[in-house]
Design goal:
By secondary structure, the protein is α+β, with helices and mostly antiparallel strands. It has four helices and 17 strands. The chain has a 17-stranded mixed β-sheet that branches.
Amino acid sequence: MTVKFEKYQGTGNDFIMIDNRKYGLGKSNTSLIEHLCNRKFGIGADGLILLQEKMSYDFEMVYFNSDGRESTMCGNGGRCLVKFAHQLGIVKDTCSFLAIDGPHDAFIARDGVVSLKMKDVEFIERDGENYVLNTGSPHYVIFVKEVGSLPLVAEAKKIRYSQRFAKEGINVNFVEITGNGEILVRTYERGVEDETLSCGTGVVASALALAYRSGEKFNSVKIKVPGGRLAVDFEEGDGVFRNVHLIGPAEKTFEGMVEI
């Protein structure tokens, strides 16, 4: 079967998009998805996303990491999928879709920037000087002084493969607070098992951990990742973060056909 795909990227986090309304691809072919995401022998991507029909929603998002396994919510992938759905003519400027962690609303601005509403975060665990929280995917947040020079993969694996997290895995974020009103974030993603240029749920986790850590009242954080810039807006009350939005660009890079 010949399948059409499109490639999208959001601040360097790249995804294979397939309109699965046409093909009915299943979720269980792990080796195929892993092959398609392979940068040497396949198309190459951090993940693969299927767009599917879903009653009461504009569409459904089914996300797979590059290891071929269906995974939890991907923020940058969600933003890219919104642009993909827009390009297909399924939605206009606003949409509502279902992902593995529940419903999401999104808005596409005139400049193409996508604002994606994320899940509420009701609990942040403090682990010494570090933070553990779930923003649709599980994250570990560590604040450091110089994130650019950090041997990220080696340090992240100490957390990712620790006794507590080895089985289910966890994404590990290293955050530097700058003096110009933004934070720098680098992320190691489980399932990719490497650093990615950007991680949407990771920058959300980093922004909320910053707010929790500071104890100050603010509702927006600017983030610089290796692949570009994002923003996270939110409201906080009684320790619960609501109306959390991940905001940033999402762009199509190319399209093609692949034999499956």
